[in-house]
Amino acid sequence: MVGTINWTGAKLAYDHKGTMNVKSGDFSAEGNKIKSGEFVIDMTSLKNTDLASDPEKQSDLEDHLKGSDFFDVETFSTAEFSITSVADAATDEANCMITGNLLLKGVSKSVTFPALVVVKEDGSLTSVSDKFKINRTDWGVKYGSGLTGVIGDKIISDDITLQISLEAK
Fold first, then answer.
1. Distance of alpha carbon 5 from alpha carbon 166, whole angstroms
2. What is the number of other CB atoms lying within 10 angstroms of the CB of residue 64?
3. 63, 73, 151, 161: which could join 8 in a potential S-S bond, CB 3.0 to 4.6 Å?
4. What torsion do the CA atoms of 128, 134, 139, 140 make, to the nearest 10 degrees?
């Protein structure tokens, strides 16, 4: 399995974007429906993409996000997502609603998101989620949160927008 997770985190005046790689995983499917599955996210692969023109700032942000203020990748080098249920969704962008447990920084919380899943005749599967949000404080990532008393332009949004793209055989 290969995959990428695109992320966006924001402050009041601007946001940062980046990626993380899917390290491993597997799915079972029937037709265009995922039946079960799980994947592991390589948190050490966290990259910033919007500061590419300023490598020093890019590196500083990546180091900060990987540090103990945010995702503490030295202690928690991976995160995991395990599907618990899949329901039909009938929109132009999605054919299923995927619910599963996201284990991040040792905390497991349920997450639901819409996705377009396509199973090809050769048995390979592609899945692209719509963009969806998680509240980082649910997993103990509280640096810069308004919940901790930070005010004004120092506040970092508690919401992280994610989009997951996976390919499996």
1. 9
2. 14
3. 161
4. 140
**Angstrom distances, CA of residue 45 to CA of 79, 125, 160:** 11, 23, 17
Give the tens place of pLDDT for each residue, 61-82: 999 999 999 999 999 999 999 9
**Cβ proximity of 58 and 64 under 8 Å:** no
At 154 the three-state DSSP class reads helix
How many Å apart are CA 17 and CA 41, to the nearest integer?
17
The structure tokens listed for 8 are: 């966006």
- Is this model's pTM higher than 0.85 or not? yes
Torsion of the alpha carbons at 103, 106, 110 and 114, rounded to the nearest 10: -30
pLDDT given for residue 129 in this prediction? 95
CA distance 20 to 145: 22
